[in-house]
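We were asked to recover a plausible sequence for a given structure. The inputs and outputs are reproduced exactly as logged, with field labels preserved.

PROBLEM: sequence recovery
POSITIONS: 301
GIVEN STRUCTURE:
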């Protein structure tokens, strides 16, 4: 069993940033990474500061991993299966035959985007014609036609948001009726969003580029970009086992030091309620790591 000052669960932007900080604080730290960081799904990020031409998500990940390696922080490839808080306030975690004991834990396990069901979804993301985050790359939709696909009126907010950039926006549904209330209807009208009530039956990449949205009645719509507003699955199961407070969809609620409602359990990145951005995740990781370092110092005083 590894005995640590902090166990970091998740090896994406948040987890690896926290590892760098804790290494520089000279703390015994280890990262356990399940290999599912959302960075791997980003073809090119243009809003990550310092890279004028953009940077691939995998390149960000590789740079962070290399920096962690400089400090000899182990990064173990595994999925933590259980997490327990001991009577003395420390934590024990397990993954198969691997066991860790730590005085604190940072959860940085993120979320998983709910993908639309069509065969070429990965290639469409790579080509930039299927996207998930208009905050990240709405600028790239400037002057282009956009289709937003959600459940019922679930994509309403995203459609209104991306209309600031796009030349035209159409809101589609996967089946549930789009039934906006008067305020929502007025918002869509101000944003000049066209609501398409016939349900989506298929989605494919167009040969000439862009995406083709086929409706149940056979009608087809061609757009340059599709935004999937289908939500995310939050990887907060370990925190739920310990009774950590969360939102209705499983995002963790934290204090100003990124600590959850469970003493000694911290969280950073997309798993935390708030804005899902790489830079936000890294800032939260820095806050959590510093709080843990100060906490450990206080125990020694």
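RECOVERED SEQUENCE:
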């Amino acid at each position: 069993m590894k005995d640590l000052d902090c166990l970091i669960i998740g090896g994406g932007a948040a987890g690896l940033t926290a590892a760098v900080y804790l290494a520089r604080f000279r703390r015994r730290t280890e990262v356990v990474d399940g290999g599912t960081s959302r960075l791997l799904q980003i073809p090119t990020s243009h809003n990550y500061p310092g890279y004028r031409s953009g940077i691939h998500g995998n390149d960000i990940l590789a740079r962070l991993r290399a920096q962690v390696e400089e400090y000899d922080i182990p990064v173990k490839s595994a999925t933590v299966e259980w997490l327990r808080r001991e009577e003395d306030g420390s934590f024990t975690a397990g993954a198969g035959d691997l066991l860790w004991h730590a005085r604190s834990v940072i959860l940085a396990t993120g979320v998983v985007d709910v993908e639309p069901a069509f065969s070429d979804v990965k290639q469409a993301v790579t080509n930039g014609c299927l996207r998930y985050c208009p905050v990240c790359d709405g600028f790239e939709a400037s002057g282009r036609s956009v289709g937003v696909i959600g459940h019922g009126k679930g994509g309403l907010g995203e459609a209104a948001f991306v209309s600031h950039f796009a030349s035209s926006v159409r809101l589609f549904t996967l089946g549930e009726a789009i039934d906006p209330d008067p305020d929502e209807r007025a918002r869509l009208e101000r944003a000049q969003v066209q609501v398409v009530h016939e349900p989506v039956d298929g989605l494919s990449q167009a040969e000439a580029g862009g995406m083709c949205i086929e409706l149940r009645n056979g009608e087809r719509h061609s757009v340059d970009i599709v935004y999937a507003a289908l939500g995310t699955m939050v990887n907060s199961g370990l925190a739920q086992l310990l009774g950590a407070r969360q939102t209705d969809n499983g995002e963790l609620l934290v204090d100003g030091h990124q600590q959850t409602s469970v003493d000694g359990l911290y969280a950073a990145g997309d798993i935390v309620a708030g804005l899902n951005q790489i830079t936000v995740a890294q800032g939260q990781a820095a806050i959590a790591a510093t709080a843990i370092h100060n906490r450990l110092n206080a125990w020694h005083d």
